[in-house]
Design brief:
By secondary structure, the protein is an alpha+beta fold. It contains four helices and five strands. A five-stranded antiparallel beta sheet has the order 2-3-1-4-5, covered by helices on one side.
């Protein structure tokens, strides 16, 4: 198998995408944070001492997506045209699902940006709430959808 991030001598290289077509690229990733009922209730009530948890997490997720090349070795710097972070609260499971959607027009995809965005958002929730619940657990970070480029569309198929 050929590894694209290494040259013939085993040295790390950034992949040359200059020959690729410029296309619309989009990726969506998700993740979940599970917490105690007390922590979930405080987030719902806006009663966390550090402030607006989901508002801060949204901004952090957007910033995380934009900073992906600074965090992940050999990622290309991309001119992102959209980054959004949305949350779905599940009171019965005491968990919050984060979804990050990223778009750009370019020569390489935005999967890493979507995954980094959702991870950063969830880590921010943990950071803002750790005084309430240090047992929070972040799970299920994964790519849901991507489109654009030579490989086309990927849609995660749920396991039966």
């Amino acid at each position: 198998m050929d590894f694209t991030h290494f040259d013939e001598n085993g040295n790390a290289v950034m992949v040359d995408v200059s020959g690729k077509d410029i296309t619309e690229r989009m990726a969506r990733a998700e993740g979940m944070i599970h917490m105690s009922p007390e922590c979930f209730e405080k987030i719902e009530a806006g009663d966390v001492k550090k402030g607006d948890v989901l508002g801060c997490a949204r901004i952090a997720g957007i910033m995380g997506a934009k900073k992906t090349p600074d965090l992940i070795p050999l990622c290309h710097v991309l001119n992102l045209t959209k980054v959004s972070v949305d949350f779905e609260k599940d009171p019965s499971g005491c968990r919050i699902r984060a979804v990050c959607t990223v778009k750009c027009t370019g020569r390489t995809g935005v999967e890493m940006e979507a995954l980094t965005g959702v991870s950063t958002a969830l880590l921010t929730i943990y950071d803002m709430c750790k005084a309430i619940d240090r047992s929070m657990e972040i799970t299920g970070i994964r790519l849901l959808h991507k489109e654009g480029g030579k490989s086309g569309v990927f849609d995660r198929q749920e396991e039966e």
